[in-house]
Structures are given as C-alpha cells and as structure tokens.
Amino acid sequence: MPGAGVPVLSLDAVSIRYRGGDGSLVNALEDVTLRLVAGEMLGIFGPSGCGKTTLLMAAGLLEIPTEGTVRFSGTQADTMAGEAALRDFRRRHIGFVFQKPNLVPFLTAVENVALAMVIDGVPAGEAEQRAMGLLAALDIAHRAGNRPAGLSGGEQQRVAVARALANDPVLLLADEPTAALDSRRGRQVMELLLGIARRRLAAVAVVTHDPRSIDLFDRMIEMEDGRIVNESRAAAA
Ligand SMILES: Nc1ncnc2c1ncn2[C@@H]1O[C@H](COP(=O)(O)OP(=O)(O)O)[C@@H](O)[C@H]1O
Ligand SMILES: [Mg+2]
C-alpha cells in the first residue's frame, strides 16, 4: 500500500471526441492534464454536459483517449496497453460508484458485495467474510441480510460503496454518488468517501453538484466545455 501523497494516476493532455448522432464531432474532453495521489479526495464540478463523466471514464480506463495518455504509476497499465490488460487492471484496482446503487435485486447486501469477488474466483465463504468486513467498516453490517428493496436509498449507496471497495482499489471514482440522497445521507456518503481516501489511502475522485460538501475535498476542479477551467485547494490541508 503506497503512502499518502504517492502518485497514483496521471492523465496527460487527454482529449476524447465522440461522434454525435448527426455525424458531428463532440469534444467531450479537451486537453486535460490531471494527477491524482494516494489519500486525497478530489471534487469535480461543472455544468451538465461539460465532460465530468467522460473524465471519470478516462481515469477508470473505460474510455480510451482520442489523444493523450492515462497512466497508473508504477504499473504497466496505461492506455497503450491492450483491451484485455486494461480490463484486468480495472477489475483488480479501480472501484466505481454511480448515482444509482445498481444492486442486484434478488441478492442480499452481503451477497451483492461478495458477488464480484466470487466471480473473480474467491471461494464463497471467504468472499462473504470479506464482504461482511466491508459492510461493517461502512456501518451497515446490521443490514447485511436485507435485499435492496429492504434498504433505504442511503443504505443502498453504502452497500454500493462497499462493493466498490471489494478489490481494495487504488483509485475510487464516484459519479454524482449523492444525487439521489437527501442532504444528511448525502453528507454521510461523502464523509465515507473521504474516510476511504484517508484510511485506505486510495485516490478518490468524486463528481458532484452538491456545494454542501465542498469542505470535504482536498482539491477541486471545475470543468467547462471539456476543459479544466479552474483548480483550487482546500485552505486547511
Ligand atoms: N457515448 C457518447 N457519444 C456521443 N457523445 C457523448 C457520449 N458520451 C458523452 N457525450 C457527449 O460528451 C459531452 C460530455 O458528456 P459527459 O461527460 O457525460 O458530461 P457530464 O458528465 O459533465 O454531464 C456531452 O456533450 C455529451 O453529450
Ligand atoms: Mg455525468
């Protein structure tokens, strides 16, 4: 496990262009350079359509840049590698949390968290034990036996965060994870993400519109038209 401040990921002059429905090119990401280090929580802000999700997709190796490079420190994982290698790296080292928890409805909370590990070849008993540990770390172990329908929105999102931690990621990417939650539960999820950065020394990047949580970020970037137009650091680091 790297120490706090150790480089995790660098995006260098990354541009991503999509071809729109009418055949025109959309510059979803334009010349973005960004570094993420272990133990920090980065906030990504900007209006709808400015490229926030595309930035997370690039950082998470889900979208290959049209130009520029994405590189994980100390690994061979960069966007010059083949598709299979990227998929493998993603599965082993990157966690994703989305706006909706997207839990499997017929599995319990603990089974939802264990599922990816089981698919990955971890024996079921061990996977469940580790899943219970993650649920406990997120203060939701008492709901382990509930199916998603028996959990509140905030509880479901906690389970989704636990699931994202199953592979002990060096990078955790969250795309508007509190958008469907009330302010108190939204704040709790944001605090949870900060705890993951601090205690597990993951690099955490969170897209959010919620101005109420800005005090939790070490660093914030603001995007516009696919570019980073502003960057600021927390006063008290
Ligand atoms: N798969 C795609 N195909 C075509 N255009 C896309 C695709 N994904 C995103 N875009 C476009 O790229 C721009 C940035 O989108 P996105 O990253 O989703 O913005 P945000 O998350 O900030 O709302 C938008 O103009 C969007 O319409
Ligand atoms: Mg988005």
TrEMBL record:
The keyword ATP-binding is annotated on this UniProt entry: yes
SMART domains membership: AAA
Keyword annotations of the record: ATP-binding, Nucleotide-binding, Transport
ABC transporter domain span: 11-237
Gene Ontology terms, MF aspect: ATP binding; ATP hydrolysis activity; transmembrane transporter activity
Entry GO CC: plasma membrane
Record Pfam families: ABC_tran
InterPro entries in the record: AAA+_ATPase, ABC_transporter-like_ATP-bd, ABC_transporter-like_CS, ABC_transpr_LolD-like, MacB-like_ATP-bd, P-loop_NTPase
Gene3D superfamilies xref list: P-loop containing nucleotide triphosphate hydrolases
PANTHER family for the chain: ABC TRANSPORTER ABCH.1, IMPORT ATP-BINDING PROTEIN
Name the record gives this protein: ABC transporter ATP-binding protein
Organism field: Neoroseomonas eburnea
Lineage of the organism: Bacteria, Pseudomonadati, Pseudomonadota, Alphaproteobacteria, Acetobacterales
